[in-house]
Amino acid sequence: MAFIPLLIGLSCLLVLRYLWYTWVHARKAQSWGCASLPSYPTDLIGLNTLKEALRADKEGTIPLMLQRRVEELSIREKRRVATFRIRQMGRENIFTCDPANIQAMLATKFKDFELGSLRQFTLHPMLGTGIFTSDGEAWARSRALLRPQFTREQISDLDLEEVHLQQAMRALPVDPVTRWTGETNIQAILFQALRNGGELPPDHFSGYFDRGQWYVSQRARFEKLHWLVDNKESRYVNDKVHAYVDQFVNKALQMSAEDKPASSHYVFLEALVAVTRDPIELRSQLLNILLAGRDTTASLLTWSILMLARHPAVFQKLRSTILADFGPYTPNHDSITFAALKSCRYLQYFMNEILRLYPSVPINRRIAANDTSLPQGGGPDGKSPIYLRTGQAVYYSVFVAQRQKELFGEDAEVFNPDRWFDRRVGWEYLPFNGGPRVCLGQQFALTEAGYVLVRLLQRFDAIEDVYPEKDIKYTLTLTLTPKDPVTVRLHEAAAVSAT
């Protein structure tokens, strides 16, 4: 029975160790002027908050759930609460929509925060090691590899954009008499790049890529129990995604310098092969940039079409601006340049407003890499700093931040591109993140989306939402998209038929 005294002794040591570290952290927090945070009500483990998140996911209301939590705590505390503690599946997280705290994590205290191990657990099975899954030197290497893809010269080359746009246009045939298209799921066209009006087979890569992202988001919600989400289907989906990309990687690795076609265009995969011949790294870099380039821009365009269909006055104002700046729809698109798109002010206002209300990445997370603090959220008035131990997870939501009335006025929930006239913003508007990890492809995405909007509104003089009575619901995986298909009818301008 000698193990009983040993067990008691070990238990005492653990208790003493816990008390010691609690005292050390309390002293440090006090010396930094930190104060306590309000907590979102849940059970001891945080099972209720998981159930709440899974239910909201099923209902298509996750971003609204985040807003509601902020509102409920604000009512309870009788003040605006923008930062609070919340427990989910055994992990105590901090949630914030306070621009000062977001700025600290992404910029002024950048070195105190990292993506952390959970990002690896959730994204790595599908994406591998890349800009969205790594920290430190691995992240710096990935960013350096991606940077040449987003030079001014690359962004300004819109000829390839026109080729892909025309493929999408073939999926929008019009009736020769009425000049209306049929009822069209524009979201499918933008995300799947349908060719010649055809439909993709059910086992196409894009379907597996979307399903893989759903598994990624579910792993994140299960926190420490993320492994519960991994199953036969998730592994099969990842294998399909990897096999598809590996085809291109292997072809690039086998191609000799003499085999490469003469071209003045920069090709990302060819540039990667010149730096590394590791097939796993090549696959990972391609998947990371695919996620950044496909889903975020398609999300922006899908929300744009939905808002244009539901706000005819905005549609007419934007179309009039586009016709004044770029002329009517013709095969010649030379006037639509990077500089001209940037100079089209109302087009930029429109995209700003889309990204304010429907940011492509509405919620993100950082982990404290060492003991540190955030500037606001503690104390009775929420103005005191808050203390973070090493390993503390902090979620931040630009979706909630960008809809706060305190930051964007009483009409913050209203879609109104005119609010951007002569408006300057800071950390309250972050659709492309900020600090050293600011999105490399920001100008690329805005240029692509702006180009597509110009060409669409040159060709079509009206867009109708087939289901205008439907409430907007959300699908949130790694990006934010409408849950229901965006089904519209588009009317071709008479000038197009005459060309």
UniProtKB/TrEMBL annotation:
Record keywords: Iron included? yes
CDD domains, alphabetically? CYP52
| Cofactors that this protein relies on | heme
Gene3D superfamilies given in the database record: Cytochrome P450 (1.10.630.10)
Keyword set, alphabetical order = Heme, Iron, Metal-binding, Monooxygenase, Oxidoreductase
What Pfam family does this protein match (any one)? p450
Q: Report if keyword Ubl conjugation is assigned.
A: no
Database matches in SUPFAM superfamilies = Cytochrome P450
Record-linked InterPro entries? Cyt_P450, Cyt_P450_CS, Cyt_P450_E_CYP52_ascomycetes, Cyt_P450_E_CYP52_fungi, Cyt_P450_sf
Annotated family: Belongs to the cytochrome P450 family.
* Name the record gives this protein: Cytochrome P450
| Record organism | Aspergillus lucknowensis
